[in-house]
Design a protein that fits this description.
Helicase, Ruva Protein, domain 3; 2 domains; 262 residues; single chain; Rossmann fold; alpha/beta; 7-stranded mixed beta sheet
Length: 262
Amino acid sequence: MTVRAKKHLGQHFLIDQQISQKIADQFGAHQACYKVLEIGPGTGALTKFLLDREEIDLHVIDVDRESIAYLKENFPDLKGKIIEGDFLRMDVSKVLGNDPFAVVGNFPYNISSQILFRCLELRNQVPEIMGMFQKELAERIAVRPGTKTYGVISVLLQTFYDIEYCFTVSEHVFHPPPKVKSGVIRLTRNKRQTLPCDEKFYVQLVKACFNQRRKMIKNTVKAYLKEAPFEHRFLELRPEKLSVEDFIELTCALEEYRSQNA
């Protein structure tokens, strides 16, 4: 049977086996995690090379019924491990239990950011994320402070993951070819378990700062201040200059200020 690439699902099927092999080789079983969930396997271009690695306990999930039927017909080794469903909405514990699992895939461009933020919610169960994204997004995720592309998704993911940009993939190795190049990145869980500040406030502050990214931090924090003055070494900087540690420091300082001026 054949599987049609569906535009509304953001499907572009990888047809270059050398690239598929190269992507599969990037999986590093961080923290000795060999249980893997591949999201959006399509026709199994990456799946076949993941299955070649005998140490991996592979599960796959797709919302496309044609892909599910194709995988069941062509990958008998995955019997009982092919899930028809939406990773963004499913109860992971009912499918994979509470054990750690890595997330891999040639991710659909239209939901790739959402997949990453879902993994961020599950970060204590997901020690590694490895796969292919639109190149522009992959670069934004991995970029360091001080650049124009550094933003909310960079900070929030780098708070809990170390990120490596692995390599770029041409648009010509897909069917149908996308209009942009792709980038393969690998995210591995760092040692930061919790934040020394309220996490919801931290996320709120990071988003607020980048919503006014052309303005200095002092303009953003005005919304959180009382009549008492607030002084901090980052106030004259723009948000793109702040590292994860800097944003944590700023959040802690604002929390202390608010508690003293409640």
